[in-house]
Amino acid sequence: MPAALLLAKITVYAAASLTNVFPQIDSTPTYSFGGSNTLAAQIQLGAPADVFASANTALPLQLYQKGLCTQPVVFTRNTLVLIVPKSNPAGIHSVYDLQQPGVKLDVAASGVPVGSYTRQILKNMALSSVLNNVVSNETDVREVLAKVALGEADAGFVYSTDAKTVPGQVTALTMPAWAQPKVQYGICVVKNSSNTTAAQAFVKEVLGKSGQAKLLAAGFLPREKPKTAP
Amino acid sequence: MIRRAVVWGAAIVALAFLALPIVAVFAKLSWSDVPHEVSSSLVTDALVVSAKTTALAQVLVVLFGTPAAYVLASHRFRGRSLVVTLVELPIVLPPAVAGIGLLAAFGRMGLLHTSLPFTQSAVVVAVAFVAGPLYVRQAIAAFEGVDATLVAASRTLGAGPVKTFFRVVLPLARGGLGAGEALAFARGLGEFGATIMFAGSLQGITQTLPLAVYAEFDVDFHTALALGGLLVAVSAVLLVTLKWLASSSTSAFRFALSSST
């Protein structure tokens, strides 16, 4: 296969939480990062994407069922954390402190994968009432991160990998493992890609050894849960 | 002949290009769903938020913008053009930059340490910041268009500056002020970038019509289209009103309108 074909610039539509790690895995593609739901809507309307990497499996699966992309594969996993600004203006030390009236809680909209996970984890902990303290429904996880890092919001739910990108600005409070939703990232090659070969090569790269190592280094979890001893 | 064909061809391309997206909004609408979609709580809440914040922002714009414009129009001082440029700057600023600026100024961690972000007042502030300059700019032109000899005559006949302003200047500039206000109103109604950054997006509190269009885009494209159609209709009514005002008003008004383009 001619090298030029592989080097040809492809366009990768990827979840906002992959903003830092994907260019580390491969700096050649043109990236469009955003809320996975927005990206999926754009692909449905004919956006020129070659690869779609989503923060869930439901959205790429929907595209696959509509014949718009190949069958998605899980390429990594993640966990949710609660973040507060370093200055912690509302004095939040656990998720239960979100119940205090007047706390400015920033979340992603329910259609965004992380927004849906946020509602799941709160439901699992019987804390759905804290959603009354929501001050804004953001369009992707990085908007939540930005508003908490700026100190404008008192707290927000993001992936643990997002919190690691601004270590000096936010404190991440871990959420209990039993309440965590299943956060799996799905990737697929878009059907009307003009460069399927390069798109497939990119997916292979992400699933391959070095791609997985970069994801792990950024704090993502291995794509298959390690088998626990019986 | 050929030259004429080229001109006509270019004109047709330009007109078709400008009209197509607007026509498409209505062409892609499924009209039978519109009543149902437009009556959803998302849409009605967004309408109320937009109406409230836009109205309040425009009151503030007129209340503070009119004196500011009058001062700038009737005084010549060093650095005046710098001040006028600063006033006009938000018009050309990318809305995202306006949002960053508002956070840097009025954010909790901003210069003034206010607790404005995420409140409905923040929407009013964002709208006033991006739309206000359109009014002020137009109002300066309107005040400058007032015949100075009429003002002088009023003063020599014994009317004080305040009386002269309200009895002579304001009636003469009224048309231009109205045009500026209509432009600011339309711009404010469409405000998106600064609002979503500075005020966030929460249904019933800070989610205006344009924010609702964006929120619905990936949830239900048809509702987004219906909302889009609603905004096109409201904007069209505003524009027609503006043109009607222009054609039925004084020449000073037309001067102000044409100087805005």
| CATH H-level homologous superfamily name of the largest domain in chain A | Periplasmic binding protein-like II
CATH topology of chain B: MetI-like fold
What order do the SSEs of chain A take from the amino end to the carboxyl end, as H and E? HEHEHEHEEEHEHEHEEHH
Assign an overall shape of chain A: elongated
CATH-derived architecture of the largest domain in chain A:
3-Layer(aba) Sandwich
Radius of gyration of chain B: 21 Å
Strand content of chain A: 15-25%
N- to C-terminal separation of chain A? Answer: 46 Å
Can you tell me the number of structural domains of chain A? 2
Cα separation of the termini of chain B = 31 Å
What form of chain B results from the Cα inertia axes? globular
Q: How many β-strand stretches of chain B?
A: 0
CATH topology of the largest domain in chain A: D-Maltodextrin-Binding Protein, domain 2
What's the mean pLDDT score of chain B? 88
Q: Please report the number of helical segments of chain B.
A: 12
Q: Give the SSE order of chain B as H and E letters.
A: HHHHHHHHHHHH
Largest interface: A-B, 22 and 20 residues
CATH architecture of chain B: Orthogonal Bundle
Main beta sheet of chain B: strand number and arrangement? Answer: none
Task: List the topology elements.
The complex is a heterodimer of chains A (230) and B (261).
Chain A: H1 3-7, E1 11-15, H2 21-25, E2 30-34, H3 36-44, E3 51-54, H4 58-65, E4 73-78, E5 80-85, E6 105-108, H5 113-124, E7 134-138, H6 141-149, E8 155-159, H7 160-163, E9 170-174, E10 183-189, H8 196-207, H9 209-217
Parallel strand pairs in A: 1-2, 1-3, 6-7, 6-8
Antiparallel strand pairs in A: 3-10, 4-10, 5-8, 5-9
Chain B: H1 2-27, H2 34-38, H3 41-74, H4 80-92, H5 95-106, H6 120-144, H7 148-156, H8 161-189, H9 193-198, H10 209-217, H11 221-247, H12 251-259
Helix pairs in contact in B: 3-6, 3-8, 3-10, 4-6, 5-6, 6-8, 6-12, 7-8, 8-11, 8-12, 10-11
